[in-house]
Recover the amino acids of this structure.
């Protein structure tokens, strides 16, 4: 990732970021406190949408907000917490269905604040998807839910094309074209149109929100050796190659389909700014291998900025004080940078 970078505009006068609670049985509260401790002097400022009583048990250096706009004024001295209307029952290490209304309220309010400009963007703490689904949650993950929450026929601009998921780390950015699906279902879903859609949203975000002046995309194959000229599968030549041709015709610097097993070594990474991969694990395995503690989950193509730490609820270590906040800190910093670039465009 060595392409020309556009300068980052100053972060002055930035609204605070909205940080969601996540699953209260997980590590979200602990890492929120640790992130505040790491960022309170430098920023970016954020406020946590959570149960103040729960957070007070983790740290007494918190204050209850009335409005998001109050967060920046207290952030240097206290962790700002905006109270939830729904009750929260928190037992470290235990994900409870009873908390589903509070978890979803936290997400919905963060999205609302980001949409109306009270927050610069939303940063989401990890949720336990199986618990929410058991309580009636109809989405396979955060990414799809945020896409639904931000849908609007009144906003037909380019940034209503999402959601597209990106894993962004210091050495690698990857985009899974199919996300939370069984492998057999994901393969059946692949079309040139789906690949082109993900590539266009990615290229736009790289330019407008990551400051890459001329984005370069590497497009992975699906089968071993990108199909070996059809000997190992026809999807690469019949689905992926036509999508790459279409992207090139549209002026996108795209290469592929490339064998996925040779895309992620150092020399290969220097030839592109993001890698589009056909399957969830094709994208997430290299991203997490290279930057397990500080990769960031980003949702592209939305009318709001959204980032998240690239890990789960970590129920096994919740409440033990050992959870690392590196990825959340990176997610907060990246959200602030992306929001600043988007404001510059306006």
């Amino acid at each position: 990732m060595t392409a020309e970078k556009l300068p980052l505009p100053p972060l002055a006068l930035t609204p605070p970021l909205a940080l969601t609670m996540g699953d209260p049985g997980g590590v979200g509260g602990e890492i929120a406190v640790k992130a505040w401790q790491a960022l309170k002097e430098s920023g970016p400022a954020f406020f946590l949408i959570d149960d103040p009583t729960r957070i007070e048990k983790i740290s007494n250096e918190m204050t209850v907000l009335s409005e998001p706009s109050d967060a920046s004024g207290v952030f240097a001295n206290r962790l700002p917490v905006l109270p939830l209307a729904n009750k929260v029952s928190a037992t470290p290490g235990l994900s409870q269905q009873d908390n589903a209304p509070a978890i979803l309220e936290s997400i919905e309010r963060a999205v609302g604040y980001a949409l109306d400009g009270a927050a610069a963007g939303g940063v989401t703490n990890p949720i336990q998807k199986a618990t929410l689904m058991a309580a009636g949650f109809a989405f396979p993950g955060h990414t799809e839910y945020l896409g639904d929450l931000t849908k609007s026929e009144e906003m037909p601009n380019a940034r209503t094309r999402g959601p597209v998921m990106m894993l962004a780390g210091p050495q690698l950015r990857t985009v899974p074209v199919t996300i939370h699906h069984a492998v057999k279902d994901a393969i059946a879903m692949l079309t040139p149109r789906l690949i082109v859609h993900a590539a266009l949203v990615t290229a736009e975000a790289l330019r407008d929100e990551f400051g890459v002046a001329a984005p370069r995309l590497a497009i992975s194959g699906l089968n071993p050796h990108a199909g070996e000229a059809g000997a190992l599968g026809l999807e690469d030549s019949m689905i992926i190659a036509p999508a790459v041709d279409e992207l090139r015709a549209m002026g996108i610097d795209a290469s592929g389909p490339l064998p996925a097993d040779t895309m992620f070594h150092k020399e290969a990474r220097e030839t592109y700014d993001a890698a589009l991969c056909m399957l969830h694990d094709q994208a997430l395995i290299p991203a997490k291998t290279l930057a397990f503690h500080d990769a960031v989950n980003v949702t592209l193509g939305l009318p709001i900025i959204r980032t998240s730490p690239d890990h789960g609820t970590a129920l096994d270590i919740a409440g033990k004080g050992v959870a690392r906040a590196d990825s959340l800190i990176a997610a907060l910093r990246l959200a602030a940078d992306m929001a600043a670039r988007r404001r510059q465009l306006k």
Remarks:
- The chain has two domains: 1-159+303-346, 171-290.
